[in-house]
Each structure stands twice: as structure tokens, then as C-alpha cells.
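pinging the channel bc i need a second pair of eyes. not urgent but kinda urgent?? the chain im working w is below, pasted from the shared doc
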Amino acid sequence: MRRPKGVKTRKAVVKRFKITANGKVMFHGAGRRHLLVGKSPKRRRSLRKASLLGPTDTYRILQNLPFSH
């Protein structure tokens, strides 16, 4: 007889998001892979930084990361 597994972490979510010490969710925005010549230097610089995720999406992400918060 097999034992039930329990809660699993979504590994795809682990690779894309980082949880801060206060429980906020950081992520890197899209648009940094290619076609950078057409984007302004200011826009390219801002794409380097990680952004803070909104409260609705934060709840969804934390549901997929059961052991990080």
C-alpha cells in the first residue's frame, strides 16, 4: 500500500520568484531577452531590477510554494 505524498512545491514557481524576509514576492519582468536595440536605455536599466508582485498574484504564488513562508 502506498503512502500519501503530501504537499509538493511547484518547481517552476521556485525558479521564477523569490520570497523576501517579510513575505513579499519578487520577480523579474519580461522583455529582457531580445530586441533590446529598440528599447530605450532607461527601459533596459529598469528591466534589470526585480519588481514586487501585487497582492492578488502574491497569494497565488505562495499557494504553490508551501514551504517558503
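so The chain has a mean pLDDT of 92. and The first helix runs from residue 11 to 16. — does that match what u expected or am i reading it wrong
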